Amino acid sequence: MDFAKTYYNTRGYRSNLLYVGYWIAQDRQALLSYSWDGNVMTIDPVSTGNSGWKDFLTDYNTFCMERDGKPLFNQTFGLTRAIVVHAFGERLQTMREACHQFDPQGRLMNDYFRSLLT
User: Fold this and answer.
1) What distance in Å separates the CA atoms of residue 73 and residue 87, rounded to the nearest whole number?
2) What is the DSSP letter of 22?
């Protein structure tokens, strides 16, 4: 299914720049790596932020989640707790335990990550 074409036909939005795609090798050095389970191919839509962009990203995130896509925490706009739980499952508990062990008062956890990880 061509998400962008279908989205354009149903919502009238089209990204105004080309998409970027690349391969990422498996990475188990970072607990919340999006290539933890193996090599991945990523397709990243790009835009200047034109009207409709954020709504597109919200729907694109859902589309990717439904296909077992994994977000990149510091670059994926509009993450929700549901997307994060679906993508990282039990690794979130390991992350919570590590955060509690090394930062028991939660001083280094900002509101954004707290809402996604805890």
Assistant:
1) 11
2) E
